[in-house]
Amino acid sequence: MHKITPLLLTSALAFICLPSHAEYIEPFSCRNGYFPSEGKFTKLYTVVGKHQTHFFKDTEGCPESEGCMQKAYVIEGDEVLVNKIEGDWACAWYQGKKRETVGWIVLENLAPAADPAPQPTDWLGTWKTPASSITIEQQEQGNGLHVTGDAIWGTGASAHVGEIDGTLKPEGRYAMTKEGDDKYDCAVEFSRVGRFLIVDDNNNCGGMNVSFDGVYVRE
Predict the structure, then answer these.
(1) Torsion over CA: 48, 55, 22, 186 (sign)
(2) Which of 43, 127, 131, 170 is deepest in the core (most CB within 10 A)?
(3) pTM attached to this predicted model
C-alpha cells in the first residue's frame, strides 16, 4: 500500500515560508480540527462491506504502522465525509448522534455516494454542533440568504462568544459571508455536502478561542 510520510522541513526558513495549513506541514494529518478547512473539496461516501471498517490514527508513521488502528469503526451503509485521499487511504469524518469520529479509513471500504447539487432551499434551516448554532433563511427583500449564528467557548463568567450576521449567495455547494475587506474582519465559508453543512471561519468571528468551524447537522 501507498506509504504516507511526513514532509521533512530542511530548515527553519523553509518552515516559515510554507503556508500554515496543516496539510502542507503534515501531509499525514487527518483530524477534526483541520477537517472543515477542506470543505470545498469534501465529498460524500458510503461504507461498503460486511465487516467493521476501523478508523486509523494520523500520528507519525500512521495509518499503516502497527498500533495505528483505533477502536472506533463504521459499518456498511454508514455515510462519511472524505476531504482527501492519499494512496489507499481516505481521511474521513463520521458524524454520530453525540460526537464525530475522524481518521484514516481504507479507501476500498468506501464507495462514492449519490449527492445531487443542492437547491437554494437545501441551505435553509437551523444547523447545529454542540457549541454552535447557525440559521439560514430566505431574505425578505432582494436575492440571497440571510445567515445568523452564535458560538461559545468555555463556561460561566469566563465564556467567550461569537456571532455571524450576513448574506449568502450560494454557488453550487459553496457560499461565503464576510463583514468587510480587512483581513481581521469575520469571514466564513460554507459547503453543503450530503445532509451536512461544513463551516470554516478565519478565527475572527468572536472572542478568544471562539470558532464556528465544524460539520453541522440540520435540526
Answers:
(1) positive
(2) 127
(3) 0.84
Entry field: residues in the chain: 219
Q: How far apart, in Å, are the Cα atoms of 41 and each of 12, 19, 36, 167, 211?
A: 30, 18, 10, 23, 20
Rounded distance between C-alpha atoms, residue 183 and residue 47, angstroms: 40
pLDDT tens profile 173-205: 999 999 989 999 999 999 999 999 999 999 999
Q: Is 50 in the same domain as 102?
A: yes
- 69-120: per-residue pLDDT in tens? 999 999 999 999 999 999 999 999 999 988 999 999 999 999 999 999 999 9
Domain end marker among 112, 143, 160: 112
Cell triple for residue 47? 461504507
90 and 21 belong to one structural domain: yes
